[in-house]
Design brief:
With 407 residues, the chain is an alpha+beta fold. It contains 15 helices and nine strands.
């Protein structure tokens, strides 16, 4: 449903500014939902169709994505407000991403980074963005997860995004808002404590329901429960010796879009949705992406993928004329490995991310609360062959590395 304030009269001056055409005239606006029920817990998204006439007399038909913050009376909205996710994303689209795009283009690093921003309207907590579907960008299948080809493209995109952010911090520190130093495990925030302890308990219930998993990992996970937020905070902690970038912060399949050639091969990747972008080690983005979005056979290539990302990042920074300290490949591998706990934190959301069952909920709290609906939904998302297999695989790896032991 189109918000009552989103009229032809509202859009016309804003589209005139975007298209640099003072004679542009909006003729018609109508809308359709941009996501299905249960696919987006963070915001309301609609696709608007706009017919407009430009100064040359030609009528164009375009679509745009309108992304609006959840109403404050919706239960999960309080958490998102505490972590300033809406202002953060508006800052990203209004100030940060356009400047990163400019820096990349100046260095000859062409290609789309994300959707262009048409309007950032803070009064309505709303953004109007370019609709990437118009350019044949689509999401890959979140249930099937990504093959090697899609993975490599995504890592190249991340290496470009991260490199641009390093230069941005050096040249335009005024664009780095306080919210970009906030993350799920920020020690001065409490809202995500309930979320992460809730999804951790869901993992525990699953593990305790499998006799062999309970025997091998049950006690260790039970002890870890009380430390999940502190260990999460340590993962995000960085020192002067660590490589620091602006991370996407929520890099998984649905937040990446691909363009394909006529043969169906992916050619380019762009990122969308920047509510959780934050400044920390780029290893956080990599661990999260690898854990929840890659097929198992691609996860097996982790060390090769990390090295490939590292070389792309270094090459991009050279093109951007970066003069600062940069870690050796051995140092970067160590920075990546010491954040291995991020794999467990990421995996806590994997069951819902790749869920393809019949239980549908539009209430984010069902993912972590022990209500009747919540427990039913959590049981359902763990009742999946791929979730069971990937949980077994991950726990064995983490246990072998000592990650499940108290630190």
């Amino acid at each position: 449903m189109l918000p009552n304030w989103l009229t032809e009269e509202y859009l016309q001056p804003r589209l005139r500014t975007y298209y640099k055409d003072d004679q542009l005239k909006v003729l018609k606006v109508w809308s359709k939902p941009a996501t299905e029920k249960g696919q987006n817990y963070m915001s309301t998204m609609i696709r608007i169709h706009v017919d407009f006439q430009k100064s040359d007399g030609l009528v164009q038909k375009k679509t745009y994505i309108v992304k609006e913050a959840l109403a404050e009376n919706i239960p999960q909205a309080a958490i998102f407000i505490e972590y300033d996710v809406y202002n953060r994303e508006m800052d990203m689209y209004e100030f940060v991403l356009p400047k990163m795009k400019e820096l990349l283009e100046e260095a000859g690093l062409k290609g789309k980074l994300t959707a262009d921003t048409i309007v950032v309207d803070r009064e309505h907590s709303t953004m109007i963005l370019e609709d990437l579907a118009q350019y044949n960008y689509v999401n890959a299948d979140r249930v099937k997860q990504l093959d090697l080809e899609h993975t490599k493209l995504t890592l190249k995109m991340l290496a470009k995004f991260h490199a641009a952010s390093v230069i941005l911090r050096q040249r335009h520190p005024e664009l780095i808002s306080k919210s970009l130093f906030t993350h799920f495990f920020s020690r001065d925030k409490k809202g995500y404590t309930e979320v992460y302890t809730g999804v951790f308990r869901a993992l525990l219930r699953f593990v305790n329901g499998q006799p062999d998993l309970k025997e091998n990992y049950g006690d260790k996970l039970e002890k870890l429960l009380n430390f999940v937020m502190e260990y999460g905070a340590r993962v995000f902690d960085v020192s002067e010796r660590d490589l620091q970038t602006l991370n996407h912060g929520d890099c998984w399949t649905t937040n990446i879009m691909f363009q394909y050639d006529d043969a169906g091969s992916p050619q380019t990747a762009v990122a969308i949705d920047f509510q959780f972008s934050n400044i920390t080690s780029p290893a956080i983005d990599l661990h999260y992406f690898f854990t929840v979005s890659l097929r198992e056979e691609v996860q097996e290539m982790e060390s090769i993928l990390v090295d490939s990302y590292y070389h792309d990042l270094r090459e991009n920074l050279e093109k951007l004329s970066y003069k600062g300290i940069f870690p050796s490949i051995e140092e970067f591998r160590l920075q990546f490995e010491c954040r291995r706990f991020m794999c467990l934190l990421s995996h806590l959301f994997k069951p819902v991310i790749i869920y393809n069952g019949s239980e549908v909920t539009s209430d984010f709290s069902s993912v972590y609360k022990e209500t009747e609906e919540g427990l039913r939904f959590q049981k359902s998302i763990y009742d999946s062959e791929i979730v069971i297999r990937s949980t077994r695989r991950l726990l064995a790896i983490l246990n072998g590395k000592g990650v499940l032991d108290l630190q």
